[in-house]
Each structure stands twice: as structure tokens, then as C-alpha cells.
Amino acid sequence: MANAMLAIWSDVTPEQETDYLHWLTREHTTERVSIPGFEAARVFRAALPEVCRYLILYDLAQPQVLTSPAYLARLNAPTPWSQRIMPRLRNFARGGGPVRAIRGIGSGAHLLPLRLGQVPGGAESLLEALVAEDRVCAARLLEVDQKGSGTPTNEKALRGGDGSFPGLLLIEATDPGALRQTLSRHGQAITALGVEVKDPALYTAVFALQKSELRDGAADGMNEASPGPA
């Protein structure tokens, strides 16, 4: 698993959802994963009624990738498609940094991402208890580099303000019922990390891209994809 991660939340309207997904799968994730230090991307959709909420998780080689010249160059030169998408995103939140603890192995199709109210520390025993639960694959604890995540860029200016969080707990499982049971059994310990555990949204994987899947020239040709409806 990655030494660092970047997590990004956003909402779109139902009318914008197809264009948003085409942008993610046909341009944006390819653009990002082609950057040195970006190793993989996974996209999840929240199980929420009447809300189209997505979470993108990027695996990074190291935390310094967040402020690397190559990444900042992309953030300061958004594509025409990105320039159209970014102002439409709502409830945008973004944070990246080092992965402080990992337990388990692999990844599940179902995810419980919990934003922490404090910088995580000393939670290894909790992660061990989480992955001991039936059908739970892995648990990760991310500490957000607030300075690196908050670097001003042209892309950020298009959104008009990003939400932030000190840390992130990610629990992955093979089915959503396992996540609900795990949350019920370990709710008190999770709450101690500054998490509001009442009715959190569960997420399902909808797309994934590994750097090894990028064919030669994919990054150069990504803007040739149809930009979808204006």
C-alpha cells in the first residue's frame, strides 16, 4: 500500500453526473496518474439518497508529491474540461499527506471513509481490531499535511474554497454490511478520534486506474477525448 495519499470529495448535480464521470474516467485521473509520484487512483460513490457525492483516492509515492513541481504545474494549468468542471463542484474537501498506519492487505469494493477531527496518532491497536472483523480487508490512517494540501493554485481558485480535515480513517470491506457492523462494534473508539459516527455514508468503488495501465502516450492524448456537453 502507498506511503502517502490524497483524498478529494465533491458533489455534483444529477444533470452534471455523466459529464463529471466522463471527465474523471476519460481525462482527469489519467492526467493525475501520469504525474511522477502518483501511483494509482480509485473513485467511489456515496450511498446517499438524492446526492451525487464522489470520493477520489490517490496513492502517492511520498507526501512530498503534493508540492512537487510536476503536480503544481498541472494544478496551475487546468485543462479546458477541468475549467468547466471545477466551478460546478460542491462540498469540495481535499487533504493529503503521509499514511501513518496500515493494517490488513488489498482493497475492498466497499469503503467507510471517516474524516477525523484531530491529527491521528497511536491508533494502531484500533486498526488491528478493525481488520479482525469479518469481511474487513484493510484499514488505513492518513495524517493530512495542511500546508501542502492548502497550497494556492489556479485550479483551487476555480472552486472558490476547499474544505479541509486533520486526518482520515479508511476502512475497506467486501460488503457494506461488514462496514456497518464494524462501525457499531468500534464506534466508541472511533469517536475518540474526533469522528461523528452517526449515520456516516458508505461508498462503493466505481472506477480504478493504476499507473501500470497507462499506455504509451496516454497522458499526451487525453485531451483528444470528447469533452462532453457544455
Assembly of the depicted chains: single chain
Number of domains: 1
Approximate shape: globular
Q: Percentage of helical residues?
A: 25-40%
Helix-strand sequence:
EHEEHHEEHEHHEHEH
The first-level CATH class is given as: Alpha Beta
Account of the protein in words:
The chain has one domain (4-224): Alpha-Beta Plaits (2-Layer Sandwich), CATH 3.30.70. The longest helix has 17 residues, at 17-33. The protein is globular and about 45 Å long. The protein has an eight-stranded antiparallel beta barrel with strand order 1-3-2-8-5-7-6-4. The chain has helices spanning 17-33, 69-75, 80-85, 124-131, 146-149, 154-159, 176-191, 218-221, and strands at 4-12, 38-46, 52-60, 90-104, 110-116, 136-143, 167-173, 203-210. The chain is α+β, with helices and mostly antiparallel strands and 230 residues long.
